[in-house]
Design a protein that fits this description.
nine-stranded mixed beta sheet, 11 helices, about 25% strand
């Protein structure tokens, strides 16, 4: 049953804002917020902070204490009904004496998928589903896509000149965009489960592919302590086995996964080997993404050269494009931002829709999604 009123919208919006606080730390779990209301007063609230830790409902119930009987709970995602690393939240809500539960959206996780709602209904609790569902979807784009398709949500980041160039013909690319734009990238990296790149990009740019806490926005640092900084897994395609171990990524905190076509021992620090089949001597990108999904990778942030960018676009594997346009022109000899080798007709050109535009320092950040 779906019932919407101004009060439901008001409190669910607050639960959604709470859920956003976990967006840097909850992976591979979803971001969830919970508000408990009684007599038009918030008596409990919480959000999921880390996989293996208490869920949002547990924090909210703990805060509400003995006053919870007869109250209404607002939850951004269907309460779980199974035993994972923590007990079912549906059971905790039932035992508390909650009278009504308002849920933004059903959880597509096969372990839940309506069972939490059913359990609440069977216990005689009034349940409303679908309040601010579209906003709740945006909280967990990666988790929801992986649960529905087995594939992670893929974001391709490009830093380019006005004429669509990412480097001079010599390979020089530091820096096309401004310091402020590069700092803006950090909050996207920090929310990703992994950063996907290639051996050639790692070596050419001497890349670190890490999150720099000092460069995160002040409003993020306010709720995100340095000790909680989570480094996304670095996933590097090295199909020709040319990484040496001297690259900068191997000197950084966090884990690196190397993608190769053959099971050759990898004598590299803090490294896991992923073996993938190849198509025309290239790594099969669809199978790679499926493999990452099986490893509980919800979201992939891609920072790479024009070849990988073009291949992902041509194979329709990109969910979101994030392009930083610098107010510069590099000319026809410079390197294009993506190579679309098979495009023969304008009618077949990949089509995206504009999601947002924003000035970031002197640069323009454009976010596009599949049309």
């Amino acid at each position: 049953m779906t019932m919407k009123n101004d009060q439901d919208l008001f409190y669910m919006q607050q639960a959604i804002e709470l859920a956003k606080l976990g967006r840097f730390t909850t992976t591979p779990n979803p971001n969830v917020g919970c508000i408990i209301v009684k007599d038009n007063q918030i008596i409990g609230q919480g959000y999921h902070q880390k996989a293996g830790g208490p869920h949002a409902e547990v924090y909210a119930l703990q805060m509400a204490g003995n006053n919870v009987k007869g109250a209404t709970a607002y939850v951004t995602l269907e309460p779980c009904s199974h035993f994972g690393r923590t007990p079912p939240c549906a059971d905790a809500l039932i035992k508390s004496g909650i009278k009504r539960v308002v849920i933004a959206m059903q959880d597509p996780n096969p372990n839940v998928a309506g069972q939490g709602i059913k359990r609440l209904n069977d216990a005689g609790i009034e349940v409303s589903v679908g309040v601010l569902a579209a906003q709740a979807e945006l909280l967990n784009k990666g988790f929801l896509k992986r649960m529905r398709t087995g594939l992670p949500y893929v974001q391709l980041k490009l830093a380019t000149s006005l004429d669509g160039k990412i480097a001079m013909a010599s390979g020089e690319s530091k820096w096309i965009t401004s310091t402020i734009a590069r700092q803006d990238v950090q909050q996207f990296r920090a929310q990703a489960c992994c950063i996907l790149s290639t051996r050639s990009t790692v070596q050419a740019d001497n890349a670190s592919l890490t999150v720099r806490y000092a460069q995160l926005p002040d409003n993020v640092k306010h709720n995100y302590l340095p000790k909680n900084l989570r480094q996304p897994v670095r996933v590097i395609i090295d199909s020709q086995h040319r990484l040496t171990g001297d690259e900068n990524i191997f000197k950084q905190p966090g884990e690196t996964w190397i993608v190769r076509k053959q099971n050759i021992p990898v004598m590299l620090p803090n490294t896991k080997l992923i073996i993938e089949s190849s198509t025309n001597n290239n790594i099969d990108l669809t199978i790679l993404l499926k493999t990452l999904g099986e490893q509980q990778i919800n979201s992939v942030w891609v920072e790479a050269g024009s070849q990988l960018a073009g291949a992902l676009i041509e194979q329709e594997l990109i969910d979101e494009l994030i392009i930083y346009y610098a107010p510069k022109l590099l000319g026809h000899n410079a390197i294009d931002m993506c190579k679309l080798t098979n495009l023969q007709k304008l009618s077949l050109a990949p089509h995206f829709r504009f999601e947002s535009t924003k000035m970031v320092g002197e640069d323009l950040r454009v976010i596009l999604k599949k049309a």
